[in-house]
Amino acid sequence: MRKFINDPSLVVDEMLEAFLIAHSDLVSATDNERVIKYKKAPIEGKVGIVTGGGSGHKPAFVGYLGRNMVDAVACGELFSSPPAQMFYDAAKAANGGKGIAILYGNYAGDNMNVSMAMEELRDEGLEVKTVVANDDVPSAPKGEESRRRGVAGEILMWKVGGAKAAMGGSLDEVIAAAQKAIDNTRSMGVGLSPCTIPEVGHPNFTIAEGKMEIGIGHHGEPGINVVDLEPAAKVAQRMCDVIIPDLPFTSGDEVAVLISGLGSTPVIELYILFNDVQRILKEKGIKIHISYVGNYFTSLEMAGATLTLMKLDEELKTCIDFECDSVGITQFQRT
To answer: CA within 20 to 30 Å of 71's CA: 53, 58, 89, 137, which one?
Structure first.
């Protein structure tokens, strides 16, 4: 195991300590050391945007704290859900008096802990609602979308939800926009190598040399199949062949495209993959409105990438174009 760490059991705590110092212009601590908030949160009269999940996916989740984005984040251990208390404290830290939207990924631990936190928050008279991201197509068949995992599509959900809240939307309007975003979003990943949780000291799954896993999850969850390593063009085709028909995306659609590395894949390779994706979309008459290429939702040092497409209407386009400032995405108003 080759990592820049000190104590394997303190990786998350040391990371958060450093994150708060490095980005003190954007974020600040709360009374809960595992809950980090946007520096100006809570914002009076604005719906609070909350998320959370296991650590190891930087810049997700804390990297999306910021102006017109997420207001508070609950930070779990590596690949482990934050306890209910953290989601509760994050909601309190984001509460500006107009309700709280918890936008998170579809994992059993997160579902349970968010539900427990919401029960307590509602007992205190706070209005809180959720949207659960389920954009990972290979994780369950069509018709069983409720079983699908949330992956990099969560970022576009946060972008849309954060923008709608910043525009002055009500809690119901924020929830509706975030739900529309995830309903129109599809993702899948391809893994080239495993990753190692420091406290474990060895990979928690394997991908043999010269092989790649199609449809792998962000924690190494099994994909569709394992095949011989292929050129980027064939990988892009495999991803598009799964994602495009699932919504479906059709000729004339406008989309947001997000290609994220999983941790150790060079950005140069992500652009090569994007080039093949955009060619396929162009051939199908699908227009790219905005593109994100880089490390947006990683998995420690796993090699590989995820492709995410979101079909846009005028409302989603307005939200996705809305300016924001966070470590993960900083965007000026598009004209």
So the answer is: 137
pLDDT score at 1: 85
57 catalytically annotated: yes
Here the CATH number for the domain that contains residue 132 is: 3.40.50.10440
219 is catalytic: yes
* Residue 204: per-residue pLDDT: 81
Of 202, 218, 219, 289, the catalytic one is 219
Q: What domain range includes position 294?
A: 185-331
Residue where one domain finishes, among candidates 152, 183, 214: 183
Same domain, 46 and 104: yes
Average pLDDT over residues 29-56: 98
Please identify which of the residues 23, 57, 218, 289 carries the catalytic annotation: 57
| Domain shared by 110 and 190, yes or no | no
Question: Helices marked H in 284-313 — which ranges?
Answer: none
pLDDT, tens only, 223-274: 999 999 999 999 999 999 999 999 999 999 999 999 999 999 999 999 999 9
Q: Is the predicted pLDDT of residue 112 greater than 70, yes or no?
A: yes
144 and 83 in a common domain: yes
Whose CA is closest to 130, among 122, 142, 138? 122
| SS3 call for 214 | strand
Contact 326, 27 (CB under 8 A): no
Angle (CA) 78-83-88 rounded to 5° is 130
| Count of C-beta atoms within a 10 Å radius of residue 7 | 10
Residue 42's pLDDT is: 98
Q: Using DSSP, state whether 15 is helix, strand or coil.
A: helix
